[in-house]
Amino acid sequence: MELIKVTDHYAPAVALIELNRPKELNALNPQLMGELRDSLVRLDKDDTVRAIIITGNERAFAAGADIKQMADKSAIDMLVLDQFSTWDQIRKVKKPIIAAVSGFALGGGCELAMMCDMIVASETAQFGQPEIKIGTIPGAGGTQRLTRAVGKAKAMELILTGRFISAQEAHFYGLAIKVVPVEMYLQEAVTLAKEIAAMSPIAVQLAKEAVNRSFETHLDEGLTLERKNFYLTFASQDQKEGMAAFVEKRKPEFKGK
Ligand code: CAA
Predict the structure, then answer these.
(1) What's the predicted TM-score (pTM) here?
(2) Residue 239 lies in domain
């Protein structure tokens, strides 16, 4: 891996992926996205990992897709490059992914953070979809995910003006779950990841699938999937252990079985 750093066991059962093109503010070129996809697919299959954190550095989570590499491309070049198929594979990762965001999360960087399951932000984080300022529009889900996250009017404002919002504003609109001082954002994400990693990984996976489905379907179908996944947890030893531990007033030990 050249453009990301992966620590499989940064904390117990928690993997950390650091985007690592600092000079380019972690601009997301196809190589970086390919490395990210390969690592996520590998970690998704690793039973010793139960939660994943994606982060950048203090100055930038990621300042968007790599403009320099895209600038001269034709529409057909972009079609053939098919860069978003990599993003589609990342979207299928079943394990929980937390974005720990400091500094710029712009364009594709904001879209990558939104593709994660939760965003923990440092006070210095800035979110935005500034593509309009360079004569294009979001291409990695921004028009859809930002609208679902913050509502139509705010999404319109951000996407049509290219304005950035602060971490506090992102928190107010429900984009970030938490804002903490810059020295703490990664630790805060680790604490959250460890809390999730202590749960039954089977229940976590089924819950993530059901929550994500709520964005993609009408209520009736979503409720049917939720119900099936709820019943499915009863086929796991973890559900028996979790409920027995509650009755016996002890801490459960989840084995992912
Ligand atoms: N692509 C390529 N290089 C980038 C980049 C990007 N998205 N963002 C920053 N860089 C590079 C800069 O060109 C600069 O490189 P050089 O030193 O070689 O000139 C370096 O990173 C540092 O950036 P700045 O000097 O510009 O730093 P700054 O602090 O003055 O400004 C910034 C920071 C406001 C983030 C500014 O860099 C900026 O506006 N970046 C572009 C943001 C943007 O438009 N993102 C959307 C991209 S399109 C997209 O993402 C499409 C999609 O939906 C997938």
Answers:
(1) 0.96
(2) 201-248
